Automatic annotation (TrEMBL):
<comment type="similarity">
    <text>Belongs to the CPA3 antiporters (TC 2.A.63) subunit E family.</text>
</comment>
<protein>
    <submittedName>
        <fullName>Multisubunit potassium/proton antiporter PhaE subunit</fullName>
    </submittedName>
</protein>
<dbReference type="InterPro" id="IPR002758">
    <property type="entry name" value="Cation_antiport_E"/>
</dbReference>
<keyword id="KW-1003">Cell membrane</keyword>
<keyword id="KW-1133">Transmembrane helix</keyword>
<dbReference type="Pfam" id="PF01899">
    <property type="entry name" value="MNHE"/>
</dbReference>
<dbReference type="GO" id="GO:0008324">
    <property type="term" value="F:monoatomic cation transmembrane transporter activity"/>
</dbReference>
<feature type="transmembrane region" description="Helical">
    <location>
        <begin position="61"/>
        <end position="86"/>
    </location>
</feature>
<keyword id="KW-0472">Membrane</keyword>
<keyword id="KW-0812">Transmembrane</keyword>
<dbReference type="GO" id="GO:0005886">
    <property type="term" value="C:plasma membrane"/>
</dbReference>
<feature type="transmembrane region" description="Helical">
    <location>
        <begin position="30"/>
        <end position="49"/>
    </location>
</feature>
Length: 163
């Protein structure tokens, strides 16, 4: 019964918490609406999301989130330096194809989201086979190093987080 009402319990919890953070007012009406959203949205998307995501280690996920937050802060500073102090001739933008070994759609989405959230990089496409991400970098004098860093820093951790 509970599994039918909450087909994706972590999605329900995430939606409730996100809604309450967006509303920014701990009112009973907001909480009730958040719970309604937390029940209805997973029920509506359940037919299109039949499998369950298996996390190997939620603690590693928390560490990953902290790592990404730190990277976002550092990337903001780096992009500000590029924008404020580099001449346009000194900026080496690049398109980089990043081959990935992740198989879980949730893990691939998390990797793409991580890259896009980090200032200076954006994932623009995922190949039809789901094995290559096309990433645009604001400044990448060595595209191979950027690709290797994405694989070592983010993909390797996500492979350990997701089953």
């Amino acid at each position: 019964m509970i599994r039918r009402l909450f087909p994706h319990p972590w999605l329900s919890v995430t939606l409730i918490v996100t809604w309450m953070l967006l509303v920014n007012q701990p009112a009973l009406g907001s909480l009730v609406f958040a719970i309604i959203l937390g029940i209805l949205i997973p029920l509506l998307v359940a037919p299109y999301w039949p499998g369950q995501t298996q996390l190997r280690s939620p603690l590693r996920l928390a560490a990953y989130v902290l790592l990404v937050i730190g990277d976002i802060v550092r990337a903001n500073v780096a992009v500000a330096k590029i924008v404020l102090f580099y001449r346009s001739d000194d900026i080496h933008s690049a398109w980089i194809a990043v081959p990935i070994e992740l198989t879980s759609p949730e893990a691939i989405s998390m990797l793409a989201g991580t890259i896009t959230l980090t200032p200076g990089t954006v994932v623009t496409d995922v190949s039809a086979c789901g094995r290559v991400l096309l990433v645009h970098c604001l400044h990448a004098p060595d595209p191979d190093a950027v690709r290797d860093e994405i694989k070592a820093r983010y993909e390797a951790r996500l492979k350990r987080i997701f089953a």
